[in-house]
Amino acid sequence: MSDGFEVPDAAATSVLPGVVARVAALADRLGVAHAEVFRTGRLSVASGVPEVVVKALLSGRPAGEPDVQARFLQRLDLLRRTRLKPNGRRYTQQEIADGAGMSRQQAGALINGDRRPTMEHCDALQRFFRVHAGFLTAEDPEALAGALQHTEQDLLQKLADREREASVASEADDPLERLLQDHGVRGIAWRAAQLPTDQHRDKVAEWLDMLLESVKRPES
Fold first, then answer.
1. CA 149/CA 158 separation, integer angstroms
2. Across 62-82, average pLDDT
3. pTM (2 d.p.)
4. Alpha carbons 5 and 72: distance in angstroms, whole number
5. With 50 as the cut, is the pLDDT of residue 197 above it?
């Protein structure tokens, strides 16, 4: 622990290769170009890691800023350049100070590197810029892995959607399944279960038997 900042261990920085491999595999399954999922400019903005460092880390080379204050200044500068006001302009030091609950002098000293940030400063600035906890201080490999994990979740959702669509299409090709859907048989069966007596349910079952006998599944 140093100046209120936790020093990440080696395990935190070893996560990146596994995430890169999983994202690449998902992209291949979906037919998405690696250049798209590993677009360095997008990953730099999402993670706060300089683009040149993103490129090096993705290629498997060790890279990154080891000093926490230097990383803080890099990330804060990136936030000021990329998280803009609705009118497209940068937030002023006064606006940052007001939004983060600190004096203009404090904000200016932090932005200019004249004051070492505390965890409280980081938390306040992260809330103001609406980024996740640790954005301003995480080691570069860890920050990049976090950004790629969001990409991984997006790809997993796309894969699930594609498999669900394929399943629906397969069911639509089955005449028996189509009959069940067209006639709402499953819904009828569920409602039949709510009937008060076995006699009522037997009558529904007889009707279903006659309906199902009218359509046979094709021989496999």
1. 14
2. 95
3. 0.70
4. 11
5. yes
